Protein backbone atom coordinates (compact mmCIF):
# COMPACT_ATOMS: atom_id res chain seq x y z
CA UNK A 1 0.00 0.00 0.00
CA UNK A 2 2.78 2.42 0.92
CA UNK A 3 4.64 1.66 -2.31
CA UNK A 4 1.51 2.45 -4.35
CA UNK A 5 0.98 5.66 -2.40
CA UNK A 6 4.59 6.72 -2.99
CA UNK A 7 4.42 6.17 -6.75
CA UNK A 8 0.84 7.40 -7.28
CA UNK A 9 1.74 11.05 -8.13
CA UNK A 10 4.36 9.88 -10.62
CA UNK A 11 1.91 7.44 -12.21
CA UNK A 12 -0.80 10.10 -12.50
CA UNK A 13 1.67 12.56 -14.02
CA UNK A 14 2.69 10.04 -16.67
CA UNK A 15 -0.87 8.95 -17.52
CA UNK A 16 -2.13 12.53 -17.74
CA UNK A 17 0.79 13.64 -19.89
CA UNK A 18 0.41 10.70 -22.30
CA UNK A 19 -3.33 11.21 -22.64
CA UNK A 20 -3.04 14.96 -23.26
CA UNK A 21 -0.03 14.54 -25.53
CA UNK A 22 -2.09 12.21 -27.70
CA UNK A 23 -4.66 14.95 -28.34
CA UNK A 24 -2.86 18.28 -27.85
CA UNK A 25 -5.55 20.48 -29.45
CA UNK A 26 -8.17 19.20 -27.01
CA UNK A 27 -5.70 19.60 -24.13
CA UNK A 28 -4.95 23.20 -25.14
CA UNK A 29 -8.63 24.08 -25.44
CA UNK A 30 -9.46 22.41 -22.10
CA UNK A 31 -6.56 24.09 -20.30
CA UNK A 32 -7.37 27.50 -21.76
CA UNK A 33 -11.08 27.27 -20.92
CA UNK A 34 -10.81 25.85 -17.40
CA UNK A 35 -7.35 26.90 -16.24
CA UNK A 36 -6.64 30.04 -18.21
CA UNK A 37 -6.98 32.19 -15.09
CA UNK A 38 -3.90 30.43 -13.67
CA UNK A 39 -1.74 31.07 -16.73
CA UNK A 40 0.09 34.19 -17.79
CA UNK A 41 -1.75 35.55 -20.82
CA UNK A 42 -4.76 33.32 -20.16
CA UNK A 43 -4.10 31.04 -23.12
CA UNK A 44 -2.38 27.64 -23.34
CA UNK A 45 -0.95 26.32 -26.58
CA UNK A 46 -1.00 22.66 -27.72
CA UNK A 47 2.74 22.22 -27.16
CA UNK A 48 2.70 23.18 -23.48
CA UNK A 49 -0.80 21.93 -22.56
CA UNK A 50 0.13 18.27 -21.86
CA UNK A 51 2.89 19.02 -19.36
CA UNK A 52 0.83 21.82 -17.78
CA UNK A 53 -2.13 19.51 -17.15
CA UNK A 54 0.16 16.75 -15.89
CA UNK A 55 1.84 19.22 -13.54
CA UNK A 56 -1.48 20.31 -12.05
CA UNK A 57 -2.45 16.66 -11.55
CA UNK A 58 0.80 15.83 -9.77
CA UNK A 59 0.42 18.90 -7.55
CA UNK A 60 -3.07 17.80 -6.48
CA UNK A 61 -1.93 14.18 -6.06
CA UNK A 62 0.96 15.17 -3.79
CA UNK A 63 -1.33 17.34 -1.65
CA UNK A 64 -3.79 14.43 -1.41
CA UNK A 65 -0.92 12.11 -0.45
CA UNK A 66 0.05 14.30 2.50
CA UNK A 67 -3.57 14.85 3.58
CA UNK A 68 -4.22 11.10 3.48
CA UNK A 69 -1.29 10.41 5.78
CA UNK A 70 -2.31 13.20 8.13
CA UNK A 71 -5.91 12.00 8.33
CA UNK A 72 -4.68 8.47 9.04
CA UNK A 73 -2.42 9.95 11.74
CA UNK A 74 0.63 8.51 10.03
CA UNK A 75 4.04 10.13 9.84
CA UNK A 76 4.81 12.26 6.79
CA UNK A 77 8.45 11.60 5.87
CA UNK A 78 10.82 14.53 5.49
CA UNK A 79 11.39 13.78 1.82
CA UNK A 80 7.65 13.90 1.16
CA UNK A 81 7.51 17.38 2.71
CA UNK A 82 10.45 18.37 0.51
CA UNK A 83 8.74 16.88 -2.54
CA UNK A 84 5.53 18.77 -1.72
CA UNK A 85 7.40 22.06 -1.38
CA UNK A 86 9.23 21.52 -4.67
CA UNK A 87 6.21 20.41 -6.66
CA UNK A 88 4.10 23.30 -5.41
CA UNK A 89 6.79 25.93 -6.07
CA UNK A 90 8.11 24.64 -9.40
CA UNK A 91 4.69 23.40 -10.46
CA UNK A 92 3.14 26.82 -9.90
CA UNK A 93 5.92 28.42 -11.96
CA UNK A 94 5.39 25.83 -14.72
CA UNK A 95 1.67 26.56 -14.87
CA UNK A 96 1.86 30.34 -14.64
CA UNK A 97 4.66 30.77 -17.15
CA UNK A 98 3.51 27.67 -19.13
CA UNK A 99 7.15 26.68 -19.22
CA UNK A 100 8.03 23.02 -18.67
CA UNK A 101 11.60 23.80 -17.60
CA UNK A 102 10.55 24.42 -14.00
CA UNK A 103 8.87 21.05 -13.43
CA UNK A 104 11.73 19.27 -15.20
CA UNK A 105 14.03 20.53 -12.45
CA UNK A 106 11.85 19.06 -9.71
CA UNK A 107 13.25 15.48 -9.78
CA UNK A 108 16.82 16.79 -9.82
CA UNK A 109 16.25 19.06 -6.83
CA UNK A 110 14.57 16.22 -4.93
CA UNK A 111 17.44 13.80 -5.69
CA UNK A 112 20.01 16.40 -4.68
CA UNK A 113 18.06 17.12 -1.49
CA UNK A 114 18.25 13.42 -0.58
CA UNK A 115 21.98 13.41 -1.33
CA UNK A 116 22.51 16.55 0.74
CA UNK A 117 20.59 15.22 3.73
CA UNK A 118 22.78 12.10 3.87
CA UNK A 119 25.94 14.13 3.26
CA UNK A 120 25.24 16.69 5.98
CA UNK A 121 24.01 14.06 8.41
CA UNK A 122 27.09 11.86 8.03
CA UNK A 123 29.95 14.30 7.63
CA UNK A 124 28.79 17.49 9.36
CA UNK A 125 26.48 16.24 12.10
CA UNK A 126 28.16 12.87 12.64
CA UNK A 127 24.84 11.03 12.33
CA UNK A 128 24.47 8.09 9.99
CA UNK A 129 20.87 8.53 8.88
CA UNK A 130 20.82 5.32 6.86
CA UNK A 131 21.90 3.36 9.91
CA UNK A 132 19.26 5.12 11.97
CA UNK A 133 16.57 4.11 9.47
CA UNK A 134 17.65 0.49 8.99
CA UNK A 135 19.71 -0.20 12.10
CA UNK A 136 16.89 -1.71 14.18
CA UNK A 137 16.34 -4.37 11.48
CA UNK A 138 19.90 -4.83 10.19
CA UNK A 139 23.17 -5.24 12.07
CA UNK A 140 26.25 -4.18 10.10
CA UNK A 141 29.76 -3.00 10.97
CA UNK A 142 30.22 0.79 11.06
CA UNK A 143 32.50 0.91 7.95
CA UNK A 144 29.79 -0.85 5.92
CA UNK A 145 27.19 1.73 6.96
CA UNK A 146 29.58 4.47 5.88
CA UNK A 147 30.07 2.86 2.44
CA UNK A 148 26.31 2.47 2.00
CA UNK A 149 25.74 6.12 2.91
CA UNK A 150 28.41 7.23 0.44
CA UNK A 151 26.71 5.13 -2.23
CA UNK A 152 23.40 6.90 -1.55
CA UNK A 153 25.07 10.30 -1.76
CA UNK A 154 26.83 9.57 -5.06
CA UNK A 155 23.88 7.75 -6.63
CA UNK A 156 21.31 10.48 -6.06
CA UNK A 157 23.77 13.19 -7.04
CA UNK A 158 24.41 11.36 -10.33
CA UNK A 159 20.70 10.68 -10.86
CA UNK A 160 20.00 14.40 -10.55
CA UNK A 161 22.50 15.13 -13.32
CA UNK A 162 21.03 12.33 -15.44
CA UNK A 163 17.57 13.90 -15.16
CA UNK A 164 18.92 17.25 -16.36
CA UNK A 165 20.77 15.60 -19.23
CA UNK A 166 17.58 13.93 -20.47
CA UNK A 167 15.51 17.06 -19.86
CA UNK A 168 17.77 19.30 -21.95
CA UNK A 169 18.90 16.80 -24.57
CA UNK A 170 15.65 15.09 -25.52
CA UNK A 171 11.97 15.87 -26.04
CA UNK A 172 9.50 16.36 -23.22
CA UNK A 173 7.94 13.01 -24.11
CA UNK A 174 11.32 11.28 -23.74
CA UNK A 175 11.86 13.05 -20.43
CA UNK A 176 8.43 11.93 -19.16
CA UNK A 177 9.29 8.33 -20.10
CA UNK A 178 12.63 8.62 -18.29
CA UNK A 179 10.96 10.16 -15.24
CA UNK A 180 8.37 7.39 -15.05
CA UNK A 181 10.47 4.36 -16.00
CA UNK A 182 14.15 5.25 -16.32
CA UNK A 183 14.80 6.92 -13.00
CA UNK A 184 12.36 4.63 -11.20
CA UNK A 185 14.07 1.56 -12.65
CA UNK A 186 17.50 2.89 -11.68
CA UNK A 187 16.33 3.50 -8.11
CA UNK A 188 14.93 -0.02 -7.88
CA UNK A 189 18.16 -1.51 -9.24
CA UNK A 190 20.20 0.60 -6.84
CA UNK A 191 18.06 -0.51 -3.90
CA UNK A 192 18.41 -4.15 -4.98
CA UNK A 193 22.17 -3.73 -5.25
CA UNK A 194 22.29 -2.22 -1.77
CA UNK A 195 20.33 -5.18 -0.43
CA UNK A 196 22.74 -7.67 -2.02
CA UNK A 197 25.74 -5.78 -0.66
CA UNK A 198 24.23 -5.66 2.84
CA UNK A 199 23.46 -9.39 2.78
CA UNK A 200 27.15 -10.15 2.18
CA UNK A 201 28.13 -8.35 5.38
CA UNK A 202 25.45 -9.54 7.77
CA UNK A 203 26.85 -11.30 10.84
CA UNK A 204 26.85 -15.06 10.47
CA UNK A 205 24.71 -16.97 12.92
CA UNK A 206 26.84 -19.09 15.21
CA UNK A 207 26.46 -22.76 14.60
CA UNK A 208 24.76 -24.75 17.30
CA UNK A 209 27.18 -27.00 19.23
CA UNK A 210 27.11 -30.64 18.22
CA UNK A 211 25.42 -32.98 20.64
CA UNK A 212 27.73 -35.28 22.57
CA UNK A 213 27.19 -38.98 21.84
CA UNK A 214 25.27 -40.82 24.48
CA UNK A 215 27.21 -43.41 26.44
Automatic annotation (TrEMBL):
Its main location: membrane. Plays a role in cell envelope biogenesis, maintenance of cell envelope integrity and membrane homeostasis. Keywords: Cell inner membrane, Cell membrane, Membrane, Transmembrane, Transmembrane helix. NCBIfam families: PRK00259.1-3. It holds the Pfam family IspA. The chain crosses the membrane at residues 51-71, 78-97, 109-125, 145-168, 174-192. It is a multi-pass membrane protein. This is Inner membrane-spanning protein YciB. Signal peptide: none annotated. It is found in: Cell inner membrane. Belongs to the YciB family. GO terms for cellular component: plasma membrane.
Amino acid sequence: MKLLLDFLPLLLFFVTFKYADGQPDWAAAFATEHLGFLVSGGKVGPTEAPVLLATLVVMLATIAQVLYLKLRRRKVDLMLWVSLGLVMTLGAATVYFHNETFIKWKPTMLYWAISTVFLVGRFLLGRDLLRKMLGPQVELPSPIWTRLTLAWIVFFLALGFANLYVAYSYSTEAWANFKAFGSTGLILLFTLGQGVYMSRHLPQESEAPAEEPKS
